[in-house]
Write a structure and sequence with these properties.
Helix content: 55-70%
Largest sheet: 2 strands, antiparallel
Order of helices and strands: EEHHHHHHHH
Radius of gyration: 31 Å
Number of helices: 8
Shape: elongated
Length: 225
């Protein structure tokens, strides 16, 4: 039976009720007073979170949108005589298949604690490293080539009049140089993801070795990290 005491303190009356542990209300009060435990980041993904994958993913998404938008514009304007970057389709497959996919995975890895998601990000960014190297070579080659349709004419042929205008070539070189700089940015971001992803994979391997050894507790506290 609950014991109740009444205490008067001036104009305030304090009623105190002591509930036994066997009372069902005690369990309800105990469950209601407990605060939910905060979400803990696993030991394997702590190193990857230090790279701020959400920021890196935002950079990839932004550059991917830029690639796609310029790809649409250049394809529409050069549909008769496409340049080398447009003809190769690099603006689309690098923007859609790699940058947008990688950006979405990196942003999601900031929200979810999944070592498998980290490994997927690393695999995709390996493709981005290779893709940016290929894209840099394509854009660099386009800078050294003539404007499409203005190559050395065949015998008894003359170049079109618009080939005498150097503004189109200057604009094309400026766009290719801009994409080379964007490719350098994408390359640096992908290398950063791979570096921190390798650290997360190394931590995951270390945790498996600790579990196989049967060391209890936090691995980082049990052994020197």
């Amino acid at each position: 039976m609950a014991a109740t005491t009444v205490t008067d303190a001036g104009s305030v009356r304090i009623i105190t009720e002591v509930i036994p542990a066997t009372d069902p209300r005690a369990a309800q009060l105990a469950s209601g007073s407990q605060t939910p435990a905060p979400a803990r980041t696993s030991f394997q993904t702590q190193g990857f979170r230090r790279a701020h994958p959400k920021v890196l993913g935002t950079i990839h998404i932004f550059t991917g949108i830029v690639h796609i938008c310029f790809g649409i514009i250049l394809t529409a304007s050069e549909h008769r005589n496409p340049s080398l970057p447009v003809a190769s389709g690099i603006l689309f497959w690098l923007g859609i298949l790699q940058l947008l996919v990688s950006g979405s995975l990196l942003v999601e890895s900031e929200r979810r604690d999944s070592p498998m998601l980290v490994k997927t990000c690393c695999v995709v960014n390996v493709g981005i490293v290779l893709g940016t190297l290929v894209a840099t070579g394509i854009h660099g080659t386009a800078v050294t080539r003539h404007v499409p349709g203005c190559e050395n004419p065949k015998p008894f042929q003359t170049r079109p009049e618009w080939c005498l205008n150097t503004r189109s070539k200057s604009l094309s070189n400026g766009l290719d140089s801009t994409f080379v700089l964007l490719g350098l940015l994408e390359f640096c971001v992908a290398v950063a993801v791979l570096a921190f992803g390798y650290d997360a994979a190394r931590r995951h391997t270390y945790t498996q070795l600790v579990r196989e050894a049967g060391i209890p507790g936090n691995p980082c506290k049990s052994l020197e990290c």
